[in-house]
Amino acid sequence: MKLKKMNFFVGLGLIIFLTLYLNLKSVWSKDTCIECHLLLDEKNVAIVENFKKDIHFLRGISCNGCHGGDASLGMDDPFASMDSQKGFVGTPDHFKIPAFCGKCHSDIEYMRKFNPKLRVDQHQLYKTSMHGKLLAGGDKNVATCISCHGSHGILPISDPNSPVFDLNVPKTCAKCHADASHMKNYKIPTDQFEKYSQSVHGMILLKNRDRSAPACNDCHGNHGAIPPGLGDIASACGECHSSNRELFNESPHKQIFKEAGLPECVTCHDHHLVAKTSDEMLGVGEKSVCMQCHTEPESEPYKVAFQIKANLDSLKNSIRQAQLLIEKAEKAGIDVGKAKFELNLAKDDVIKIQSLIHSVSLAKVTEVTQEGISKATFVKQSGQRALMDLKMRRIGLGGSAVIILILAFGLYLKIREVDARSKRVK
Amino acid sequence: MKTAIKLQKIYQWLDERVDLKKFQDLAAHKTVPQHKHTIWYYLGGMTLFLFVVQVVTGILLLLYYRPSAEQAFESVQFIMTEVTFGWLVRSIHSWSANLMIFTLFLHMFSVFFMKAYRKPRELTWVSGVFLFFLALGFGFSGYLLPWNQLAYSATKVGTEIAGAVPLVGDFILKFLRGGTEVSGATLTRFYGFHVAVLPMIATAVLLLHLFLVQKQGMSRPLELKSANPAPADIPFFPNFFLRDVLGWTLALGVLVALASIFPWELGEKADPLAPAPAGIKPEWYFLFMFQTLKFLPAKILFFEGEILGILFFTVLFGILIFVPFLDKKANLGISSRPLLVVGWCIVAFIILMTLWGVLL
Amino acid sequence: MEEKAPKTISRRGFINYLVSAGGVALWGAIIYPMLRYLIPPEVPEATASSVVAGNLDELPPNSGKIFRFGDKAGILIRTPTGEFKAFSATCTHLSCTVQYRSDASHIWCACHNGHYDLNGKNISGPPPRPLEEYSVFVKGNEIVVSKKLV
What is the pLDDT at residue C117? Predict the structure, then answer.
């Protein structure tokens, strides 16, 4: 027993000595967690290397900042560093992760030291989300903080390499939501990412890398992610498409959709596969969305749908005719700047109508159609004047050519006559 | 008949004061030799006619044109689109410039091959060569005036080449550009050259050239001197002159047709910061020189290829001036074979290089 | 002259007539366009690189108007502090024509609710880039807008 006690004190003394000695080394190696884990297997090495670019590490928080324990004790006794007495919690249990991150991220006094702007309600929001609710119910399969943000190489969301950077969000969500086997116990589809990629929002975001298009979180929320209720969809879409939302809300459809339990916006535009709109979606044709309900030709809505499309078509036709005329004139070298300007205003009217249809008000559409057509007609007239100009040039040329040829012929005869008179000319 | 009497009266009134009789005698006695090469005699007058067209259309243009970098392009656009018949005046001016230089080339080479430069017509030749240089100067300075992207780039390249001449190159470049870069200063300067300096010099040299032609009459090709019997000359007035007028009338018709059917393009406004358009090349009358310079390797022996090229053309143009003094045989009535061969080689070279530049 | 007397005269006369008539006609065809050319057109100056966008008295502070610049639309605004500014009126999102909103003192695009501040910078909504700014200067009572020189 005396030997054990002596060993203990010698050991302790060595540890103290080594701690003091190792303190003289660099900061990196001062961090025992890192120093030690670098010596372990590949998986650990990868984690540590990843951690080097982690925002937490860059802000001065090492492994023990989350995992607890003591990073300054040196390598001698690994288990001393990982002492639960020193707050070591190890790898948190899946269900405990939100609270684990929330320990700091919900503490405003703590967070404001690093970035006063950061929100501190993520954990709270998460608890209200579908993921949060399912997690609370014991579901191990759902996403927690690290599923989206990563665990050891966490980057700020403004960093283009972060999995939650705008452009990367769809792929991150798709990691689970597009995985059929992962999602097999839930009763929701797994084609959202596929559909989204083909949608106009997806194309803009993923192909053009244009951040102005919405990603999953823009409509579903970030931490409080939950699909919007049927009566709230217009609000979500209306965040960007505000005029359409207002028009829709004022239209008879708002009440009718509510009563019929039809989802706003989605009924005509789908939600994930928001396709590029086309004028074929109007009217009474095959691709018309109005025909999903209003199939009765004698009904008022059917007639309105027909008329609206007819208005739009006639305006587009007017514009097309005017366009052809001014293109022809321009090719011939006539300045058509003013006409082009007016025609652009008429084209603006087409876009206005395509928005106005959400009000399903024939009166409103007709008014704008008339305005647009009068603009296009003005342009057509300019175009026709320009082409008339061109024709006049040709006629002028023809006339001049005739005069010149007559004169030339006359000169020729005169030459012959004069030559004959002078006799000397051969 | 009444008009004829009236004209007679006016003629008499002037004659009493200015002795028009002298000119009338000259006119009545002026003749043009008649032979198989007579057709070439029309080219001088044709070039003169086209020059007159340039002066007239040029004066009309300068009433609306603005020679500043900010306004030049817009003013030409204005002429093309807003001014009544502006499109016609401008297109005729551009087309006639090209046609004039073409006929000038033909005129110069026909005079060369017919050896009309021999004694006593050496000065006529020399003044003619200066007119040739002046015409090229007109073409180069006028080309920049619309201040479009093509013109800007072409001027940049052209003045760059001029600047490559050894010793005086730097001075020439600054003199032409009105600075170190092509800028609004270049435009104003080129405008001054184009509408004032060059016309003034050209008028003086042209008057000398025409005076000499009138004084000395038309030259006869060497081979025909000994023809038997010598064919009669045709009187200039009215026979040859009417033929001249016929030619000019038809030329006017061609100009009007070209201007109407193929209006001269305006292009885009010059942007000094934009890169030069791909495949930039000068107008066709400079193309053979440009193409030659492109063709030369970067280094020949220890000389820079480009400089050798420039020197080559400088020497060539220098020789061109002195042709009458170099071709002694012509004065003796003998056609110099080697000179003929050299002449044809030069013609072939110019044609080939121009074609190469156009097609590639 | 071997031609019969009357026929010669009438033939010569005819030729002379033809040449004179042709000559006069040609001269007419030259002089007429020349004279028309010399008479200045209604708008006597070239204006494509700068336009008169409005008059001093037609724009009170905190208002804006659309004007034509070549074949495109421009927007001339007078800020609440009285300064004149001009921008391209083509929204950088999907090319709708923007308008001035005096309630927000913003330039606004009605198509998808894009907002630009009074420096033309895109501040909210889908537009990805600011509006191109033009140079404005006041000449007498006229407000002249021109493209910004590089």
Answer: 92
Instruction: For residue range B152-173, list pLDDT tens digits in order.
Output: 999 998 898 888 888 888 899 9
Half-sphere exposure at residue C50, Cβ-oriented, CA atoms within 13 angstroms: 15
Concatenated DSSP letters of A85-140: GGT---SPPGGGHHHHHHHHHT-HHHHTTT-TT----HHHHHHHSHHHHHHHTT-T
β-pairing, B303-304 with B299-300? antiparallel
Q: Give C 52-81 residues with CB within 8 A of chain B.
A: none
Torsion on CA atoms B207, B208, B214, B219, rounded to nearest 10: -130
Residue A426 belongs to a domain: no
Spans of chain A, pLDDT less than 50:
26-28
Q: How far is CA C60 from CA A51, A156, C86, in A?
A: 59, 46, 15
* Cβ-nearest to B257 among A401, A407, A425: A401
**Chain A contact for C130 (CB, 8 A cutoff):** no
Q: Helices B241-261 and B86-113, interaxial angle, to 10°?
A: 130
- pLDDT computed for residue B226 by the predictor: 61
Residues of chain B with pLDDT > 70: what percent? 97
* pLDDT score at C49: 65
State the pLDDT confidence band at C23, using cuts at 50, 70 and 90.
very high
Residue A206 forms part of a structural domain: no
Total domains present in chain A: 1
Q: Which pLDDT score is estimated for A329? A: 82
**B186 — contact with chain C (CB < 8 Å)?**
no
Does residue B257 sit at the A interface (CB-CB below 8 Å)? yes
Distance between first and last Cα of chain B: 61
Q: Does A6 touch chain C (CB under 8 A)?
A: no
List the C72-78 sheet strands across, edge first. Answer: C50-55, C142-147, C133-139, C84-88, C72-78, C63-69
pTM, to two decimals: 0.67
Q: Higher model confidence: residue B334 or residue B85?
A: B85
Using the Cβ of A419 and the Cβ atoms of chain C, whether some distance falls under 8 Å is answered with no
Going from the C-alpha of A2 to that of each of A5, A7, A16, C71, the distances in angstroms are: 5, 9, 21, 100
Which is more confidently placed, C35 or B229? Answer: C35
Residue from B70, B183, B248, B268 to probe the interface with C (highest C Cβ count within 10 Å): B70
Listed ranges A239-253, B104-118, B125-139, C82-96; the one with the highest mean pLDDT:
B125-139
In a domain, A113, yes or no: no
- Of A333, A408, A419, nearest to B250 by CB-CB distance is A408
Please check whether residue B20 is in contact with residue B77, taking contact to mean a CB–CB distance below 8 angstroms: no
**Could you list the residue range(s) of the whole structural domain that residue A358 is in?**
300-399
Q: What is the pLDDT of residue A179?
A: 92
Size of chain B in residues = 360
Contacts of B263 in chain A (CB under 8 A): 332-333
Chains touching chain C, criterion 3+ CB pairs below 8 Å: A, B
Q: Tens of pLDDT along C62-75?
A: 999 998 887 778 99
3-state secondary structure at position C64: strand
Q: B315: how many CB neighbours lie within 10 A of its CB? A: 10
CB atoms within 10 A of CB B255: 20
Please report where in the chains the tokens 């599923």 appear, as a residue. A147
Question: How far, in Å, are A341, A343, B181 from residue A316 at the CA level?
Answer: 16, 11, 49
Residue of A nearest to C72 (CA): A341
Smallest CA–CA distance, residue C23 to chain B, in Å, is 10
Instruction: Give the residue on A whose Cα is nearest the Cα of C21.
Output: A407
- B35 three-class SS: coil
* Residues B325, B122 contacting (CB under 8 angstroms): yes
Q: Does C25 touch chain B (CB under 8 A)?
A: no
Over residues B235-240, the mean pLDDT reads: 84
Asked whether residue A239 is domain-assigned, the answer is no
List the domains of chain B with CATH numbers: 31-219+234-281 (1.20.810.10)
